[in-house]
Amino acid sequence: MSDYEFYKDRSKKILSEKRFIHSVNVSVASEKLAVRYEADVDKAKIAGLLHDICKEMNEETLTKLLSEADFEIFNAFKGYPLKLYHGPAGAVYLQKEFGIDDKEILNAVCFHTTGHANMTTMEKIVFVADYISEERPFDNLSELQALALKNIDLVVLKKCETTIEKFKGTTIPVHPYTLDTYNDIKRPATKSQ
Ligand code: DGI
Ligand code: FE
Ligand code: FE
């Protein structure tokens, strides 16, 4: 059995059916983007498959896992909405429970919700794949999927814009890493202006 099939069986037991279907779809989308952007396809498939492994865990578990993350990550996420913990908590969980030590995979899982400044190609792939996975109910989904294959950065921006828009006028904060991701992609375009 390949690592991928092993992880698929294991994650199926951990996730709800809905979340598992989403995870497989993100894995398929990650694979396509990895081929297009010449990233490691096997790693992208695994990171996509496992990115939401902690999404359905309870507050106590998420808080404990986050506390075991690197101090910088712990500090960056603590005090922000619990919904944001499942990325960094997932990276800790996959290292501890699945024995995954690959930093490319772990970082792609860690930052799949917020991104951060200076993202790697693998991080962008999972960040974007999560946004354009086949079950997302966007009217313009096929356009977003096509755009991701043309210019992945533009879809990174769109995911950030969707988040910023979602929380506008609410009391819920946008995570600083989401804003860093957004500004970091925009910056090169403004250098000449
Ligand atoms: O786990 P998924 O639902 O597949 O997608 P996700 O991990 O990208 O996002 C999880 C949730 O987190 C989603 O409801 C949007 C929210 N979110 C994303 N970025 C931010 C955010 N919430 C806050 N408060 N701030 C953010 O920057
Ligand atoms: Fe997620
Ligand atoms: Fe997801």
Question: How does this model look, in words?
Answer:
The protein has 193 residues and is mostly helical. The chain has a single domain, classed as Hypothetical protein af1432. The chain is 67% helix and 0% strand. The protein is built from eleven helices and no strands. Helix 3 (41-50) packs across helix 8 (121-131) and helix 8 packs across helix 10. The longest helix is centred in the N-terminal third of the chain and has 20 residues, at 17-36. It is globular, with a radius of gyration of 16 Å. The protein binds 2'-deoxyguanosine-5'-diphosphate (DGI) and fe (iii) ion (2 copies). The site of 2'-deoxyguanosine-5'-diphosphate has 16 residues, from helix 10.
CATH fold type: Hypothetical protein af1432
Mean pLDDT: 97
Order of helices and strands: HHHHHHHHHHH
Major sheet description: none
Structural class: mainly alpha
Total domains, how many?
A: 1
| Fraction of residues in H or I helices | 55-70%
Distance between the termini: 54 Å
The CATH homologous superfamily is called Hypothetical protein af1432
What is the highest CATH level, the class?
Answer: Mainly Alpha
Low-confidence stretches: none
Q: Quote the beta fraction.
A: under 5%
Radius of gyration: 16 Å
Ligands in the model, by name, code or SMILES, are: 2'-deoxyguanosine-5'-diphosphate, fe (iii) ion
CATH architectural category: Orthogonal Bundle
The tally of beta strands, per DSSP, is 0
Shape field:
globular
- How many separate helices? 11
